[in-house]
Amino acid sequence: MRILAIDSSGQTASVAVWEDDLTLAEFSIHAKKTHSQTLLPMLEAVREKTELAMETIDAIAVTSGPGSFTGLRIGSATAKGFGFALDRPIIPVPTLEGLAYNLYGTDKIVCPLMDARRNQTYTGLYEFVKKDDGDKYDMNVIKEQCAVAIEEILEACNEQACRNSDRSVIFLGDGVPVFREEIKRRVRVPYSFAPAHMNRQRAAAVAALAAKYYEQGRLQSAAEYAPEYLRLSQAEREKKEQEAANAAKMAD
Amino acid sequence: MSMQGRMEEEKEVWILAIESSCDETAAAVIKDGREVLSNVIYSQIELHTVYGGVVPEIASRKHIEKINQVVQAALDQAEKKLTDMSAIAVTYGPGLVGPLLIGVSFAKALSFASGIPLIGVHHIEGHISANYIEHKELQPPFACLVASGGHSHLVVVKDYGEYEVIGRTRDDAAGEAFDKVARAIGLGYPGGPKIDKVSRQGNPDAIHFPRAKVGESTYDFSFSGLKSAVLNYLNGCRMKGEEINQADVAASFQKAVVDVLVEHSMAAVREYGFTKFAIAGGVASNSALREALAEACNKEGIEFYHPSPVLCTDNAAMIGAAGYYEYLKGVRHGYDLNAVPNLRLGE
Q1: Residue of chain B nearest A70, judged by CA positions
Q2: B71 and B214, same structural domain?
């Protein structure tokens, strides 16, 4: 089985081809050019070097949000185009789950942090658990991905780690440089930061996790798939706030 | 199949066209540039009406939900498969960057996965080319007025795919002025069709609004002064406690816009000696503008061309027509094609 994976949810653009527990190719860049200009040329390089025929792809994995609205659009519209042309399903991979999967097998609590601006972070909490007699880990979601204030997720880290005194927390993602001071100030349990080769979105991790989701039947048709932004547009948010304010006024 | 039959079949050029530059998700299948096999438009207008205009983020999100279905419908209605296509044409500017990126990213993926060549098309070139679909006999050179919610251009069409913009708006687009005035007199969004309708009950000479001249430039437009004049008039009425006649204001405003558009257009026709004049864009649906231009062209003794309303609004058939001529010229775009929100015509 072959999976083509795409991640353009953050500043890193990444594409990978997964085949039966092997990464055939992975190409990631962290650059200033827009994903619109880089993503497909990167995949073209992968296709050329691996002599990949697109018809041999069984499913398309894509990080389904949250993330940069523009980045999600480019990745998702590309995936939907592939799904359309090849008549293949999409495996949506929640961005924070894909990011956390970089740290497969760790005994630490994994806390991916993305800079969501407006004093928020896109985040979640994850751990890796081994079934009784198994030889592989499953990723367990402790806290579903969400958009929250940094204090909130750091407090959740403290709580979770305190429940089991052996555990520490590992942070990764583009939110780490943004929130480093906050982490230093607020985290009261042992913690560490993931190193450069695993601290940003990587399509190979997205693909490996997507392979598990594929087995679980977590697929969508290319037509029905759309990213989840975890946030309303500014216009919708302001309209809601206005309506809430009006309702409050009426109640007075 | 005979050899001759096969060769004739190969001569046919099929274009799948995609358009998502604003609030319409559209796809079409076009044969040989002028024959429309399908022209599917999913309009989001109702979503944006409550906000009084197009909200780019909402538009972008809707495009991504609808694009597969719209493209599928276009192929189904044409009874064609993606692999039957000679090329995929997509609008890459000008327009709203988020919406544009959906069409561009999707079209690039289709091209990448199928090996079918990709052609990026200028949105305005599409509007102009709508005339090729409507009028099979029309050929360049001619002059064309493109007026819509986002654009007001006076264009010399020298040849297929060769343009010179001789006049453009310095501020608001014509359609934008319609939207703003419609909001001010309580008609709401979208302003163009609403003002057009109400104006039929009004007196276009009831109020004299200014016809703006833009410095030395014969062909450039300015509509923000006119919009301000309407707002000032409304304020004046309210201050004096006078009743506002909505239909008269609408008709008088519309006449001011139409007068300027017609005058500049005919000045260009005379200066350049064209025998053919065309209009395009959403505002080209305006009945008063059509009538005035038909009369003016008749007086000048030149042919007047205008697309039917479905081809005036944003649609993909027009992108397919423009894409066809780009295809014949050998234009092909790479997988690094990007959305260009302020793309200029003729560059």
Answers
A1: B98
A2: no
Same domain, B277 and B176: yes
Contacts of residue B103 in chain A, CB cutoff 8 Å? 77
Q: CB–CB of B133/B267 below 8 Å?
A: no
In terms of Cα–Cα distance, which of B322, B317, B310 is closest to B27?
B317
The CATH class, in words, for A96-198 is alpha beta
Q: In total, how many domains does chain B have? A: 2
CATH assignment of the domain containing B23: 3.30.420.40
Nearest CA in chain A to B81: A85
Taking the domains of chain A in order of start, what are their residue ranges?
2-95+201-234, 96-198
Block residue for tokens 């495996």 = A91
- Measured in degrees and rounded to the nearest 5, phi and psi for residue B4 equal -65, -40
Whole-structure pTM value: 0.95
Q: Which candidate from A81, A226, A234 shows the least CB-CB separation from B108?
A: A81
Determine the pLDDT at residue B215.
77
* Domain carrying residue B276: 140-308
Spatial CB neighbours of B260, under 8 Å, sequence gap ≥ 6: B211, B212, B221
ipTM surpasses cut 0.95: yes
Of the pLDDT bands very low, low, confident and very high (cuts 50, 70, 90), residue B1 is: very low
Name the residue among B101, B103, B110 with its Cβ closest to that of A85.
Answer: B110
Tokens of B313: 């609004």
HSE toward the beta carbon, residue B129, CA cutoff 13 A: 32
Does the pLDDT at position B5 exceed 60?
no
Range scoring the smallest mean pLDDT among A18-22, A164-168, A220-224: A164-168
The reply to whether omega before A227 is within 30° of 0 (cis) is: no
Note whether residue B346 is domain-resident. no
The mean per-residue pLDDT over the stretch B137-156 comes to: 94
- Does residue B134 fall inside a structural domain? no
- DSSP-assigned letter for residue B208: -
Same domain, B118 and B170: no
Give the Cα separation of B226 and B255 in Å (integer).
11
> Is B342 within the bounds of a domain?
no
**How many Å separate Cα A78 from the centre of its chain?**
17
Instruction: Write the CATH number of the domain with boundaries A2-95+201-234.
Output: 3.30.420.40
